[in-house]
Amino acid sequence: MKMQGRVLSVASECVPLIKTGGLADVVGALPGALAGVGWDMRVLMPAYRALRALAADWPEVWREDGLWGGVGVVRMGVVAGITVLLLDAPHLFDREGGPYSGPQGDWEDNAQRFAALSWVAARMAREGFGGWRPDVLHAHDWQGGLAPAYLAYGGAAGVKTVITIHNIAFQGWAAASMLGELRLPASEFHPGALEYYGGLSSLKAGMVTADRITTVSPTYAAELARAEYGMGLQGVITARADVVSGILNGVDTGVWSPETDGDVLNYSVKSMKGKAAARAALCAEFGLDVPGPLAIVVSRMTDQKGIDLIPMVLPDFIAAGGGLAILGSGDPALEAAMRGLHQRFPGRVGLRVGYDEALSHRMFAGADAVLVPSRFEPCGLTQMYGLRYGALPVVAAVGGLADTVIHASPAAMAAGVATGITFHPTDAIAFAQALRQLVQLYGDQKGWGQVQKNAMKHPVGWETSAAAYAALYQGLLP
Ligand code: ADP
Ligand code: GLC
User: Fold this and answer.
1) To test ligand 1's pocket by mutation, which of 215, 251, 300, 383 has the most ligand atoms within 8 angstroms of CB?
2) Which residues contact 326 (CB under 8 A, 6 or more apart)?
3) Is residue 175 part of a domain?
4) Do 448 and 470 lie in a common domain?
5) Which residue out of 298, 301, 305, 351 has the highest number of ligand 1 atoms within 8 Å of its CB and is therefore the one to mutate?
6) Which one-letter DSSP state was computed for residue 210?
7) Which atom of ligand 2 is nearest to the CA of 399?
8) In a shared domain, residues 210 and 297
């Protein structure tokens, strides 16, 4: 394959190294997907505590003095086929806890920590390292947001920039007084550039300086221009509409395929026996006995995900024969609400609070349906896992959920194209109606089988999206 160009991707998470959400899946999947269409992508990310040992023997490819109170060293290695650049700056990243927070909550110097990551990204892109220099720097979310800004303000030396918004709710806010400390030019502190409601936002900084802005679904790209979804940044999206586009995420079908999944009893559209066995195993694992549809939720427990609606709609769903297995963690109030349901409906509601990748595979394999009642959803991955595993997605028709699930309307059923159930708006009334439809469809063996088959055949791999990113990069080259 002819090499089309080089991309330096900069992000705070990357599967299989560290993950708190779908961002990591996408950052980890892109290099492989893009290699298939001739693009050479390397990923720069922080060497968090758990990653330092891994990189200890890797060759050093960059050294940055004066990196917000210490030295940063970048080491390069290959993990699961991905060329990874780990920024080891112990004073910023060698800490107990997750990427953004420790035992006491969010780190107070998050602005500086990810400014440092972005600073190194911009410098490595501008100057190149070990004979490799990118054509494009691709920043993800607010954590990478300052990288395009540093290139724009400090000289890009021909390197083009893209920023991808995975979730506009996280904006990387900092006080205006941090302008100098974040190495940003005072001359750009005005509403048309860096100023954001009297302060700074590293996401906005990336959005005003990058050559292209992408987000992770076409519908979310359109939603972002509206106040309900733009969360303060709708004006920036509108002003830069000519460079905004939505490219749907894919899923890694090497990991998520019922035919080959090493965590589950295998099955396929042609031979569904394994799915029935997986369902029985899942019921046994959660202590459930469910005559109707067995639904699952695999999610961060936050307001975004609409988890608070579940207690409102569940009693009727249970009364109609349904059951629910829940895996997730997050907001303590939502975790408590889920515990309440588990106690109230023994044998019908199962719960695991925590994070468990292998269990999530067993859940998709065993489930009849996956519920995703999000208030907003830039793309969403679990509805796509649901499609692939024949666990019919029941989703709010927002963002990427609207772009990936074809509602089982009478017309779609007649045309034989339905893949799940969508509802709108995200409230208990519409959600309850969607669950009634799920129960009804489950009772119609022929209709159910048809939708399940359509779902499992629906393409959710990276091919189309990789081609779209490749075209985007190509369009930036001279
Ligand atoms: P978001 O990134 O907003 O959380 P996505 O749907 O894009 O939403 O991605 C979430 C990813 O995290 C999926 O791969 C999902 O399976 C996974 N996930 C979420 N919660 C858990 C959990 N408790 N255990 C295992 N995997 C989880
Ligand atoms: C964010 C979004 C999610 C998306 C993921 C990967 O976490 O909340 O919808 O799928 O990023 O792009």
Assistant:
1) 300
2) 296, 297, 338, 341, 342, 349, 350, 351, 352
3) yes
4) no
5) 298
6) -
7) 9
8) no
162 and 14: one domain? Answer: yes
CATH number at residue 394: 3.40.50.2000
- Which protein residue has the closest C-alpha to ligand 1 atom 17? 21
Q: Name the closest ligand to CA 215.
A: 2
pTM of the model: 0.97
Specify whether 338 is located in the same domain as 297: yes
pLDDT of the chain along its 478 residues, tens only? 788 999 999 999 999 999 999 999 999 999 999 999 999 999 999 999 999 999 999 999 999 999 999 999 999 999 999 999 999 999 999 999 999 999 999 999 999 999 999 999 999 999 999 999 999 999 999 999 999 999 999 999 999 999 999 999 999 999 999 999 999 999 999 999 999 999 999 999 999 999 999 999 999 999 999 999 999 999 999 999 999 999 999 999 999 999 999 999 999 999 999 999 999 999 999 999 999 999 999 999 999 999 999 999 999 999 999 999 999 999 999 999 999 999 999 999 999 999 999 999 999 999 999 999 999 999 999 999 999 999 999 999 999 999 999 999 999 999 999 999 999 999 999 999 999 999 999 999 999 999 999 999 999 999 999 999 999 999 999 9
Sequence-ordered list of residues with C-beta below 8 angstroms from that of 149, at least 6 positions apart, any chain: 118, 184, 194, 202, 205, 206, 208, 209
Residue 364: give the domain boundaries.
273-457
Report the atom number in ligand 1 closest to the C-alpha of 23. 2
Task: Tell me, yes or no, whether 268 lies in a domain.
Answer: no
Q: Show the beta-strand stretches assigned E in 159-311.
A: 160-165, 173-174, 195-196, 199-201, 212-215, 244-246, 294-301
Whole-number Å distance, alpha carbon 344 to ligand 2 midpoint, is 32
- Residue 195 phi, psi (nearest 5): -65, 135
CA-based end-to-end distance of the chain: 21
Residue 229 and residue 323 in one domain: no
Task: Please state the atom number of ligand 2 nearest to the C-alpha of residue 400.
Answer: 9
170, 65: one domain? yes
Question: For residue 426, is it within any domain?
Answer: yes
* Separation of CA 379 and ligand 1 centre (Å): 12
Cα(421)–Cα(433) distance, integer angstroms? 10
Q: Is 426 in the pocket of ligand 1 (CB under 6 A)?
A: no
Per-residue pLDDT at 1: 75
Collapse the DSSP code of 74 into the 3-class scheme (helix H, G, I; strand E, B; otherwise coil) and give the result: strand
User: Dihedrals φ, ψ of 94, to 5°?
Assistant: -85, 80
Ligand number nearest CA of 353 is 1
Instruction: Answer yes or no: is 42 within a domain.
Output: yes
Q: Given the structure tokens 């494009």, which residue do they identify? A: 136
Based on the structure, what is the number of domains in the chain? Answer: 2
**Could you identify the atom of ligand 2 that is nearest to the CA of residue 25?**
6
Q: For ligand 1, is residue 444 a contact (CB within 6 Å)?
A: no
Whether 250 lines ligand 1, by a CB cut-off of 6 Å, is no
Tell me, using a 6 A CB cutoff, whether residue 313 lines ligand 1. no
Q: Give the atom of ligand 2 at the shortest distance from the alpha carbon of 23.
A: 6
R_g over Cα of the chain: 23
